[in-house]
């Protein structure tokens, strides 16, 4: 691996580590804002998939061993990944913007609709006040 490939993979590696940290944060905050966390997690997964596809395309362009190992199927794989890479980036960024800019869902003020939570009151009548 030459210096130009290392200089390419270091920023992408740092970005992927930030995406993994974002996925962890999204999973940690899933109870507070489930829709936002799920959208953010799926978006970061798609963006990391896109980065992996892009890394494979760069490595396979200069590596003869991949062509020898995969044979003719390498051209089909490269064609599919060239389509997947920008598509997953577009969908990933749309999901990130949706997670941040969609209005929050309205939660009821009374959380008694949640399973396991019951609300009741007992009134005692005074026999002398009737």
Number of β-strand runs: 0
Judged by helices, strands and strand pairing, the structural class is mainly alpha
Order of helices and strands: HHHH
Q: Write down the Rg.
A: 26 Å
Q: Which whole number gives the mean pLDDT?
A: 75
Q: Level of helix content?
A: over 70%
As residue ranges, the low-confidence spans are none
Number of helices: 4
Task: Return the domain count.
Answer: 1
Key phrases:
mainly alpha; 130 residues; single chain; elongated
Describe this structure in words.
With 130 residues, the protein is mainly alpha-helical. The protein has one domain. It has four helices and no strands. The chain has helices spanning 3-28, 34-62, 64-70, 73-101. Helix 2 runs antiparallel to helix 4. The longest helix is centred in the middle third of the chain and has 29 residues, at 34-62. The protein starts with a helix and ends in a 29-residue tail after the last helix. The mean pLDDT is 75.
Short description:
The longest helix is centred in the middle third of the chain and has 29 residues, at 34-62. The protein has one domain. The model has no long low-confidence stretch (mean pLDDT 75).
């Amino acid at each position: 691996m030459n210096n130009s490939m290392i200089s390419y993979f270091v920023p992408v590696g740092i970005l992927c580590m930030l995406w993994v940290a974002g996925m962890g944060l999204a999973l940690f905050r899933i109870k507070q804002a489930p829709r936002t966390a799920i959208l953010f997690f799926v978006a970061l997964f798609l963006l990391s998939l896109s980065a992996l596809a892009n890394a494979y395309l760069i490595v396979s362009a200069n590596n003869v061993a991949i062509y020898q190992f995969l044979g003719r199927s390498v051209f089909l794989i490269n064609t599919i990944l060239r389509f997947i890479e920008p598509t997953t980036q577009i969908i990933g960024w749309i999901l990130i913007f949706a997670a941040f800019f969609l209005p929050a869902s309205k939660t009821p003020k009374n959380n008694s609709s949640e399973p396991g939570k019951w609300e009741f009151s007992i009134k005692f009548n005074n026999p002398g006040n009737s």
